[in-house]
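On clarity, I found the account of how folds are encoded harder to follow than it need be. For illustration, here is how one protein appears when written out as sequence plus structure tokens.
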Amino acid sequence: MAAGESSEFVNEVRVLGRVSAAARERALPSGDTLVSVRVVVSRPVPRPARRRDVVPVRPASRVTVDTFECVAWGKRARTTLLSLLPDEHVVVEGALRRRFWRTGSGVASMVEIDVDRVRRVKPVRPAPREARCPSPVAGQDSAPSGQ
């Protein structure tokens, strides 16, 4: 354990992603209301292995995103989730929770993010193509030679 770290367990999560569809509001038999939304997060590109790596990097997967079900119970978080539009970028903060429920074939479960706070963020867009590609030197024709 590093200096200054506590030995207590911590369940905190923060994801930055894109809202996949409109939020859904549900009233439970207990009378509680919850709002849920799915947030899509890009997976990082695997980095190449280095000799000093203790743990080998796992091979690249065809899966490029992860989708998280985010559930809000508090009024403020529920209101914010309901106001989100598909494709908006958000930061969601909360804790991981595993929910259990009974089905006709037994018990089912799912891991969700129990939302404490959510806020919109500006999407990060890649630079326009012109900004990424060097422009031709002034006075030179950009056409291939011999034409």
Notes: Confidence is low (pLDDT under 50) at residues 130-147. The beta strands are 13-19, 24-27, 33-42, 65-72, 89-103, 106-121.
